[in-house]
Amino acid sequence: MLEAEIRKRKQEKDILLMTHIVLGYPSFDDSRRIAHAMVEAGVDLMELQIPFSEPIADGPVILHANQKALAGGSTVDRCLEQAAKLASELPIPFVFMSYYNIAFMRGFDRFAKEMKDAGLHGAIVPDLPFEEGDDGLFAAMEKEGLDPIFIYSPNTSDARMKAIAERARGFVYCVARKGVTGESTDFASLDGYLGRCRAATKLPLALGFGVKSKKDIDELVGKVDIAVVGSETIRVVDAKGVEAVGPFIRSLR
Q1: Which positions are annotated as active-site residues?
Q2: In 3D, which of 162, 173, 156, 178 has the Cα closest to residue 59?
Q3: How many CB atoms lie within 10 A of CB 245?
Q4: Which of 19, 44, 93, 130 is the most buried (most CB within 10 A)?
Q5: How many helices (H) and strands (E) does the chain have?
Q6: What is the pLDDT of residues 161-176, one digit of tens each?
Q7: pTM score, two decimals?
Q8: pLDDT tens-digit readout, 52-78
Q9: Which residues contact residue 174 at a Cβ distance below 8 angstroms, ignoring those fewer than 6 apart?
Q10: DSSP element (H, E) containing 39
Q11: Could you tell me which residues come within 8 angstroms of residue 157 by beta carbon, excluding any fewer than 6 positions away?
């Protein structure tokens, strides 16, 4: 379902835009307003992050947002409630992004069913290798018709890319470089890596880690299907407030 929706949207645009919000940051009311502003400005799909105390793939900007959201009372229950509201209010696909401990403590079957009931399309779990989830979370997601979104990195071998592609659904998230989110990336240097990604899978490709501007996105047109903007939106909110989100997203187009 998610792959079909992405391909349908891609017929109308050179490249799609996926954004990332931390549920409950700066508050639950603000994260709802941010999501609405993003969609009104032309976002095509969105990651909803369930805050976690040790978000190992995230840099200081998203780490700070996770910590503030948790300190402000964000819980898995509240995140599920807000995700369900957003999915019912906004006409784009949503996926959860969080870490394995959230699903493990919740219980895989319960967590997958709650995602499905909330109207989500899938989940990105960056600290769960595909080999270790087949009998747990990924099996529970498959039972509910949810897509596991797997990750490629520049260090992923061709053989591993193909093995991941056999299990991936929806799209594949291509990490632009080693390290964590939020740092700068030289997108002009990625052609060889993205060529390997294209050769490994027929699924749509998303690319994130360092996408900050229209120039960055223009550099990715024809190379990937989806550009992912995460940390930069949080920087905009921190510096200028929620009202600046819409204009920032429009500037990317």
Answers
A1: 47, 58
A2: 178
A3: 25
A4: 19
A5: 12, 8
A6: 999 999 999 999 999 8
A7: 0.92
A8: 988 777 888 999 999 999 999 999 999
A9: 151, 152, 153, 193, 194, 197, 205, 206, 207, 208, 224
A10: helix 28-40
A11: none
